Amino acid sequence: MVKCPVVNGSPGARFRTAAILLALGVLATAGFARAQEETTDADASVLGRTFAGRLQAHEPIYFVYGTGPEAAKFQFSFKYRIAELGARSPAKTRSSLQLGYTERSLWDVDSVSSPFYDTSYMPELFWEWIKIPPGTQRGVSFNAVQAGFKHESNGKEGADSRSVNIVYLRTGFFVGSVDGWHFVFSPEVWAYVDDGDDVAEYRGYGKLRGTFGKADGGNLKVTGMAGKGFDHRSVQLDLTVPVHIGFLDMSIFVMAQYFNGYGESLLAYDRKTESVRFGFAVVR
Prior knowledge:
Number of domains: 1
Number of strands: 13
Order of helices and strands: HHEEEEEEEEHEEEEE
Largest sheet: 12 strands, antiparallel, barrel
Number of helices: 3
CATH topology: Outer membrane phospholipase (ompla), Chain C
Distance between the termini: 45 Å
CATH class: Mainly Beta
Shape: globular
């Protein structure tokens, strides 16, 4: 067997590697957007029956790099509308059955050979009800419900294998002005379908998410969990600011992420970690 030589690069070389990966991610996103714009009518007639208006972003899509044992972290997530459950009402509500998929990886890019530390694969099937807030809305409104089944596993074998199955309920409340400053509050609760006692000890049975900001401005999202006995607290802060890249004719979000707590990876759900990372988001 032939072994490839591995060079343990300097911190500067590692930083350049991460910068190159970040640039490639931005360029790939720009290429995907341009490809969508250049779709022909013939292509659209085929895609329209399967993807147009059905495939959407689900959870945030981002790439960040910073401190911690696993310096890089990225996530992509999509959902596909399987069926529309009833017609839209004049109040712009939509009820549908959705198939979702999210993948999140922690990447030890600074180590020799830059191995992936852990990846969570998260398919889900859920019912979704959404009420689009009118542009003139002020005050408080109830705007969304999601209820479904979600599987999460890391695809490893033996002692490193991890998996968990849950059924969950997530709601969304909107406070403030659609065009101005507003706050979105999204509590979520879940129950474990299989034996999830070990994971529950650290992830608990729910989490709270709150986002404050403006649609066309900066946003700060706070996500918190407390563990089964409220003694394994975790918090994640995501700050995003929109930026337009003129020569690529695209907009992204500059992102800063802080995590302190348990369960950032499924492999080490019982290990407390702290990290600060910076990068970009395509969807926040």
